[in-house]
Predict the structure.
Amino acid sequence: MEGLPFEPVERSLEHVEETAGTLVGNAELKARSASASGWAIASDGGLEVPALGPSWDPVLTRRQGQARLAELAAGLGDRRVSWREAICLARGGEVVASWERDGTRGVLAPLPWPPPGDLWVWDVFVFPQSGRRWSELDEAERVQLDLTWTTLRADVRGLVETFGGQAT
């Protein structure tokens, strides 16, 4: 949101059940809920592990958890992963626009993994270019390697431009 004509306000929101079958659907549920009194942006993301096929659902990344991924990934030869993120911009309870993108690619770190924290995915996601986990990168490296959010940032900026920079 940096550089856009919005003044971010963080506020406590009531929990929104992520009942949609897609990341963009869950982002839309959250954005509509948060936008009753103005603009809101919400996101939902998930880790894609192509070699696991239907055994791993990116929409359920947080709910499936690190332990389940470790169980499924034990002995996995193809450890390629990517991050998929969806965002939604809503106003007055209505969706204005939503996008779902990927592009941030890496591999699963070798086991064992550190104990899961709130954002445990970043401790298991390794960038082959540097051999380092997401959690070990500094901010400049994250911006350079995070192609998913770079694309989403461009999407949001393009939409704001269509509104002539008016955020009211």
